[in-house]
Design a protein that fits this description.
Belongs to the DNA polymerase alpha subunit B family. Belongs to the amino acid/polyamine transporter 2 family. Amino acid/auxin permease (AAAP) (TC 2.A.18.2) subfamily. The protein is an alpha/beta fold. Helices cover 44% and strands 11% of the residues.
């Protein structure tokens, strides 16, 4: 064999000048001037990651003995396999195996070696680079959220990933590993910083009281899976073998001074640093916190903001360097194929394109699949374990061929067996975790998330919540001693011990509590009041006593839910001789009478003589303090009336000074019960949601376009739609969906039209609106366009058709299974039957003011309803508003469902019991309800009531029902406000469409959808696969109720088909406003007869709320 003195002092086989030039250009072989410490820092950067922070958690799943053993075995085995690879780098005289796959080809053959090594190496290196992209972006996002206070704007994760990728675009142009040694040194220092923060802060915190080192799982199966999970976490902490040969290739080598000596020296230094990082964090973290340690050790520490920011800065710097260490072998692999196999010339332009493309691909995957780390944990088991644990041993047996049954032979086979077991078991436990996460985590949690190498929990720190203690009393010690021990077990110390124990003993005796019950209640009180420190002070005892009293009262109320209390005041309200006194009584202005009532033994609502008995918490409902709501001056002032003349003609106008006896008879006389039929019951309660796929979303939008196209053709006014993207000099008619060409707001220059797959293959075309005299468009709107497309790139519109004739009756008969008649005696007539008389009060939440949870607006609304005696009370959420300050800050001491039933449902039961069987109530949920599913369309409430007469009914959101044959459609999503913010329009001054609110409300009927906007607003959890038919409006309703934060209004919308000799069909659009806005609010009172709203009364509840039509 001919051997010559090669480049950089290494002896190589005879090569042509072209091959030598290629070797000097490729990143792995271009520079062989590295020092031994280069390899040390490269190996530390490649191996030590933020996964070190999860090692204490792994120890908690293993225990002291197995945990220490596995840590040591993993360190020893991986160091041994790394030594093998360093030795095999120059195993053949005169030849260097500069790349992992070259060593594989020598061991297994040219083709088989490539198939064995390359796929595994690509999975590891590309997968780790994608995880680094995500981790770098999330770390920068966390830094931004901590450092930048309000009013900073939230920035999406994808933008931070692109910022991180921008740095990689620049660094990727560095020629080889030796040129990034400075970056590698910095990244290695950052790696050491993780562990230093983790174990030093743990030592500072000290061993926690009552630390427990037992196994976390209570069953053998759970312990087994925990063991496998911990084994995988420890094993995946060692991933630097995939680049070790490439690192060694940068070190100069001669027969006298082979590269393995400085490389091995660097490896020993690197593994010493690994031991310094891994072992203290794992052992000290477990020692301090035991099995209560979190899956990220930083979560278990007291976390000041500066520590979180510093940790995330270290993460960003570290992953910048680590990305390049794992990317360099991929650059070499790609460029080798292009230059040697495809005969590209080794130029700077080729390097710029290939490396930029690689960074762009990893960035794109990171943006599209931000939970890639979880998937890598599943698929990576097939690649991490072989390349690190047993593939070097197999190649050693194939190349060195040690004597059978020798020590080397035994060691290698042991490593192979352990590695194969890890390769098989790691994906199994990851698969189990995927299934568990899918069933246990909420929709905001990615189903596949399971502690990747740089887990998301490094970026998000949670506060632990208290959990109830064991409720079984202990009689070993005296009661006081037992209380003291329970406090100490929970981490509390007693300030004035003797006095506090005496009071606590009294509490236990009076309220029949065990010591553990008492301390559990204290923990709830402690967290809700946000007390500081761990000292229980005597000054806290009075507030704690009030907390115990409130819990006792709640328990009594729950046990006797049907107990209602009435007093003489119920009759006094009806027999009141003065109108002013009656109004004061109903509206609840604080007075001397209230003080007199509060002194009685009955439980009344705050600040009112309400005729409705209260069944809520005495502490909340018997409060006699004056709130801002009770101090408002203008109440129920009529400001707007629709069809006032018709109202007078029908004799429905209530006299201002009614005769006392007539007024009493009117209020006492029972009203007629209205019939009720729920026409829509989808989605059903308890359904699984947020499982919609991209395919489901596409099909839903495609079906909308097709239905509109079919309706246009069926009307006989339009021809079959044409492809809008085809060039045509003549005018054509096309149907498609309006969309925007970017993420910003729609405007005249960014408007696109997306056709259906059937007519245009789903392609977009730019829409020119310059020639249109009038239009009103928004994203997601399906329209018909008449125009021509001379170039094939822009459709010049001459006419926009945004509505389709919609009939009064549904085109498709609703199946009986989807209709729910709420009265056995009620038989629904033909849909064309004329509506009867309907008296209805409408109100939309919130139902309490922002300064308290007393639900005063609801109380007064019910008092108002008892005077007006409507047939139907339509209440629309939110009922337990997630945006309420007390709920948002977590200061309530009851569950959201308890608040709903105690404050809302209980009062409604009192109302219908007082009003009699004629009264009906309908509840419609909102996505802002903290006590209900966060999804749209939204299933109906499931309330626990004894209601044999079906007087309280729950409706879906959106929902449709018939009351006395009056069809009412309602939706609690603020679609009016959202469409108002997205709509673009050009309306002539003399057009009837100048009424903006009426025009926006008409869009829903024209689009035949309760939510035609797409993409949806960021705060709307739209699920298009859950119940697509629930969003459809198949026929014109008599009344369309759309509560919104915008100014309340009532609009008559002329719609539908015109018939000879008959007026156009009408729909009444009502925005009842919010029952509670600031310290006031609005509601609506409607009387409906023969499809005409005859009376809508408005009243002003808030003195300084100007410019609105308040409905009452």
């Amino acid at each position: 064999m001919v051997v010559e003195k090669g480049y950089h002092g290494a002896e190589v086989d005879g090569k042509t000048d072209k091959e030598k030039a290629i070797d000097e250009w490729l990143p792995i072989t271009s520079s062989r001037k590295a020092k031994w410490w280069y390899s040390a820092f490269h190996n530390v950067t490649a191996m030590v990651g933020a996964g070190v922070l999860s090692l204490p958690y792994a120890m908690s799943e293993l225990g002291w003995g197995p945990g220490v053993a596995i840590l040591i075995i993993s360190w020893v085995v991986t160091l041994y396999t790394l030594w093998q690879m360093v030795e095999m780098h120059e195993m053949v005289p005169g030849k260097r195996f500069d790349r992992y796959h070259e060593l594989g080809q020598h061991a297994f053959g040219e083709k088989l070696g490539l198939w064995i090594v390359v796929p595994q190496q690509v999975i590891v290196e590309v997968g780790v680079d994608i995880v680094y992209m995500v981790t770098g972006g999330k770390s920068m996002q966390k830094i931004h959220s901590l450092v930048c206070n309000e009013p900073c704007k939230d920035i999406k994760l994808s933008y931070f990933i692109m910022i991180f990728a921008a740095a990689q675009f620049v660094l990727a142009q560095m020629p080889n590993l030796n040129t990034i040694v400075g970056l590698s040194v910095t990244a290695a220092v950052m790696s050491l910083s993780y562990s230093t923060i983790a174990w030093a802060a743990s030592v500072h915190k000290g061993v926690q009281p009552y630390v427990d080192y037992g196994y976390k799982a209570s069953t053998r199966t759970g312990a087994f899976f925990n063991f496998l999970s911990a084994l995988g976490d420890v094993a995946f902490a060692y991933a630097g073998h995939n680049v070790v040969l490439e690192i060694q290739a940068t070190i100069p080598s001669t027969p006298e001074k082979p590269s393995k000596k400085p490389m091995w020296k660097g490896v020993l230094v690197a593994y010493t640093v690994v031991a310094i990082c891994y072992f203290p964090v794992a052992l000290i973290g477990y020692w301090m916190f035991g099995n209560a340690v979190d899956d990220n050790i930083l979560i278990s520490l007291k976390r000041p903001t500066w520590l979180i920011v510093m940790a995330n800065v270290f993460v960003v710097i570290h992953v910048i360097g680590s990305y390049q260490i794992f990317a360099m072998p991929m650059f070499d692999m790609i460029e080798t194929v292009l230059v040697k196999k495809m005969d590209f010339k080794p130029r700077l332009a080729l390097r710029l394109i290939t490396r930029s493309l690689y960074v762009a691909i990893t960035m794109g995957i990171a943006i599209c699949v931000p939970f890639f780390g979880g998937l890598l944990g599943f698929f990576g088991g097939f690649a991490f374990a072989p390349t690190t644990y047993f593939l070097p041993c197999i190649m050693w047996l194939a190349i060195v061929k040690p004597k059978r049954f020798s020590l080397s032979w035994f060691i290698n086979w042991i490593c192979i067996i352990l590695g194969v077991m890890l390769m098989v078991l790691a994906p199994i436990v990851r698969f189990n975790t995927l299934v568990f996460s899918r069933h246990q985590h909420s929709t905001e949690t990615i189903p596949f998330a399971r502690r990747p190498k740089f887990p998301p929990f490094l970026l998000i720190f949670f506060f632990s919540s208290a959990t109830p203690r064991d409720t079984k009393p202990k009689f070993v010690f005296s009661m006081e001693q037992e209380i003291k021990e329970e406090f100490e077990r929970s981490g509390f110390s007693l300030d004035e011990e003797e006095e506090i124990l005496k009071k606590c003993l009294t509490f236990c005796i009076n309220y029949k509590l065990t010591a553990s019950d008492l301390v559990s209640s204290w923990e709830v009180y402690y967290l809700n009041r946000q007390l500081e420190g761990s000292d229980v002070q005597n000054a806290h005892m009075d507030g704690f006593l009030l907390h115990l009293q409130n819990k006792q009262k709640e328990a009594i109320i729950k046990e006797e839910a049907n107990l209602h209390m009435y007093s003489i005041n119920d009759v006094n309200m009806l027999l009141s001789n003065e109108q002013e006194e009656t109004q004061e009584t109903v509206m609840g202005t604080p007075s001397e009478r209230q003080e007199r009532m509060d002194s009685e033994s009955f439980d009344f609502t705050p600040g009112t003589d309400s005729i409705i008995p209260s069944s809520g918490k005495p502490s909340r409902r018997s409060s006699n303090h004056i709130t801002p709501f009770a101090q408002r001056t203008k109440k129920f002032v009529v400001q707007f009336t629709l069809n006032k003349i018709l109202e007078t003609e029908n004799g429905m106008r209530e006299p201002e000074d009614a005769d006392d006896e007539d007024d009493i008879i009117k209020r006492v006389q029972p009203s007629e019960r209205c019939s009720l039929e729920i026409q829509q019951s989808q989605p059903e309660s308890g359904c699984r949601f947020m499982y919609d796929r991209i395919e489901d979303k596409f099909n839903s939008l495609e079906n909308r376009i097709r239905r509109h196209a079919a309706a246009f053709v069926a009307s006989g006014l339009f021809e079959e739609p044409m492809d809008p993207t085809m060039a045509s000099q003549k005018s054509v008619f096309s149907v498609g969906m309006v969309c925007c060409d970017g993420e910003g707001r729609l405007n005249e220059k960014s408007t696109l039209l997306q056709g259906s797959v059937e007519h245009s293959g789903g392609q977009h075309v730019r829409l020119d609106l310059q020639k249109l005299h009038q239009y009103s468009l928004f994203p997601g709107q399906v329209v018909g366009i008449e125009g021509h497309n001379p170039s094939g790139h822009c459709l010049i519109a001459s006419k926009v058709v945004d509505s389709i004739p919609l009939s009064v009756s549904s085109d498709v008969e609703i199946p009986p299974a989807k209709r729910q008649a709420m009265d056995q005696e009620f038989q629904p007539d033909h849909p064309s039957s004329k509506p009867e008389m309907l008296n209805m009060v409408i109100a939309a939440g919130p139902f309490t003011t922002t300064d308290n949870l007393l639900f005063e607006p609801l109380i007064e609304l019910l008092a108002y309803a008892t005077r007006k005696q409507p047939q139907l009370l339509l209440l629309m959420g939110p009922f337990v508003d997630s945006e309420h300050p007390e709920i948002k800050n977590g200061t309530v001491d009851r569950s959201f469902n308890d608040i709903l039933h105690a404050e809302i449902v209980a009062r409604l039961q009192d109302y219908i019991e007082y009003m009699g069987t004629a009264a009906r109530v309908i509840l419609v949920p909102s996505i802002r309800d903290a006590c209900h599913d966060f999804v749209f369309p939204q299933p109906a409430f499931e309330i626990r009531t004894v209601d044999p007469k079906h007087q309280i009914s729950c409706l879906t959101n959106p929902g449709i029902f018939n009351a006395n044959k009056v069809k009412v459609s309602c939706c609690t999503i603020d679609i009016l406000k959202q469409l108002s913010g997205e709509e673009i329009s050009r309306i002539p001054a003399d057009s009837s469409s100048r009424d903006r609110m009426g025009r926006i409300a008409t869009h829903l009927l024209n689009q035949r959808s309760f939510y035609p906007l797409y993409p949806p607003s960021e705060d709307v959890p739209l699920d298009l696969s859950l119940a697509p038919e629930a969003l459809q409006i198949s026929s014109i309703p008599n009344i369309l109720v759309l509560p919104s934060d915008l100014s309340p209004f009532v609009k008559v919308l002329p719609l539908g088909e015109k018939s000879s000799g008959q007026d156009q069909c009408r729909c009444i659009a009502v925005n009842p406003g919010r029952l509670s806005k600031g310290v006031g609010g609005v509601s609506a009172n409607c009387n409906h007869r023969e499809m005409i709203v005859e009376r809508v009364v408005s009243g002003r509840w808030e003195d300084n709320w100007s410019g609105c039509c308040n409905l009452s």
